[in-house]
Write a structure and sequence with these properties.
The chain contains nine helices and ten strands. By secondary structure, the chain is of the alpha+beta class. Strands 3-5-6-2-1-8 form a six-stranded mixed sheet, with no helix packed on it. Strands 4-7-10-9 form a four-stranded antiparallel sheet. A hairpin with a 3-residue loop joins strand 5 and strand 6 (152-164). The protein is rod-shaped.
Length: 469
């Protein structure tokens, strides 16, 4: 079009030069005649509107009349949800419209022009900001706005908003977030600048036409609420848009929930191994290593906040605590069952058993005393003084050599008796430890089953609630 206009102008100039040289009357082309008046009208209208215009004054003829600003919002995409820093990054399409009483004209006087574009920098614009801003917004610079003959100015502005939001991570990955974007004027009270909706609130809530529905988050609704904020400096009009988004959990179910359930079931199956089996310790240690590796990998995917912790992380930590408790119990049981194999413990163990057998004796061990009664009757005269020495005849005549041999036999019999008592006591102690271990295992097993059941029921409930939204 530009090249055609240039060619037409060049052709017209050549015709003028030729006509002047030859005396031929000049007739301009119909295209030039049709375009020149319109261009002149547009320039004339622009000069008329901006000649005495002052952008520093609110555009009303009656200063007591408030300027009504119409707002509209489209959510284009959810770019980032930072639960650790409590920030939400969204891409929105923001529209606002207001009436400028000094930018009106009669379209019939200007060749029927009903709408023109003017530089925004030359016009008054409302100081509307988002109260939840925590970072500099990134938006393309659109320098022009549309103005119609009635003085209505339309400003379209795409924005990338980084806003503060109270993000909850407890129901991860079945979480739903509700973040607000509150638009208000910084300086103008409601008596000067009032805010209202461009479209109906129902259309704003259910309109998802521009949303990119192919990421991790899906848009549920954008509800809106007008309100007036009362402060010491005055009353300020506000419009709050609540952006409700929901996470798609399938990726986290496959990569986090199902592997965690597998680890818990394998750990639960380890309770069927005997408590005094060394293989059980090795098996539980391997499961603990798997828990630790999975926990490290899972920590990169779990959203972490100082306020709330994801439920899946709590359950996983509780299951690790049960595993460590069961493993510690197995280690202590094996240590107690093999207590006599340690020389230091064996000496302490034997000394305590022999001392208690000789000094006090236990009620269970007293029936074994008649076994040594015969030896005591034979060695009795030999152990009570030297008055009996040399007395007696035949085989009962006591000598020093025979007395010494009988004392050795008695000492060996006492040692054998104490060792038998120690073995019997150790056997009964092992049975008691095994009984206690089986009871603790049964208790831990059922607590583990209840915890795993509560974990599964809670996740299913969260999934049902997520699906019902």
């Amino acid at each position: 079009m530009v090249s055609q206009n240039v060619s037409a102008n060049v052709l017209a100039a050549l015709q003028v030069l030729l006509a002047r040289g030859e005396g031929i009357p000049v007739h301009r082309s119909s295209t030039t005649d049709a375009q020149r008046p319109r261009n002149s009208t547009l320039h004339r209208l622009t000069r008329h509107l901006l000649l005495n215009y002052s952008k520093g004054v609110r555009p009303v003829r009656n200063w007591s009349k408030a300027t009504t600003v119409y707002l509209d919002l489209f959510v284009h995409a959810v770019l980032d949800v930072d639960t650790q820093n409590q920030k939400l990054t969204t891409s929105i399409w923001f529209r606002q419209m207001w009436k400028d009483e000094f930018l009106t004209w009669n379209s019939s006087l200007y060749d029927g022009i009903r709408e023109i574009s003017l530089p925004l920098s030359t016009l008054w614009s409302p100081d509307i900001v988002i109260n939840e801003f925590v970072d500099v917004s990134r938006s393309p610079d659109l320098p022009y706005v549309y103005v119609n003959a009635a003085g209505m100015i339309k400003n379209y502005k795409p924005m990338q908003v980084v806003s503060a939001c109270s993000l909850e991570a407890y129901a991860f990955p079945f979480d739903t977030q509700n973040c607000s974007l509150t638009f208000s004027s910084i300086l103008h009270t409601v008596e000067d600048v009032d805010l209202t909706f461009w479209r109906s609130r129902e259309d704003i809530k259910n309109n998802k036409m521009l949303f990119l529905d192919d990421g991790e988050w899906e848009l549920l609704s954008v509800s809106s609420h007008p309100r007036v904020l009362h402060m010491e400096t005055g009353r300020f009009a506000q419009i709050q848009f609540n952006v409700v988004i929901r996470r798609r959990p399938l990726l986290y179910v496959v990569s986090l929930l199902i592997p965690s359930l597998f680890l818990m079931v394998i750990d639960l199956a380890s309770f069927y191994l005997p408590p005094n089996c060394g293989t059980r310790i090795t098996f539980k240690t391997s499961v603990l290593v798997g828990y630790t590796v999975f926990k490290v990998n899972m920590s990169d995917k779990l959203p972490g906040t100082a306020v709330s912790t994801p439920l899946i992380g709590v359950f996983f930590t509780v299951c690790m605590a049960f595993l460590v408790l069961s493993l510690s119990k197995s280690i202590l049981l094996v240590k107690f069952l093999h207590l006599g194999e340690d020389p230091v413990w064996e000496r302490l163990f034997s000394g305590c058993c022999v001392g208690s057998a000789l000094d006090r004796g236990s009620p269970d061990e007293r029936p074994q005393a008649p076994r040594l009664q015969a030896a005591g009757d034979i060695a009795g005269p030999l152990l009570h003084g030297k008055k009996e020495e040399g007395k007696g005849e035949g085989p009962w005549k006591v000598t020093s050599a025979r007395k010494a041999s009988v004392e050795n036999i008695l000492a060996e019999l006492l040692l054998i008796s104490s060792q038998l008592r120690a073995l019997d006591w150790a056997s009964r102690l092992e049975v008691n430890w095994l009984t206690l271990s089986y009871r603790l295992d049964r208790l831990l097993f059922w607590v583990y089953v209840l915890t795993l059941g509560a974990y599964a029921v809670t996740l299913c409930s969260l999934w049902v609630v997520w699906s019902a939204q």
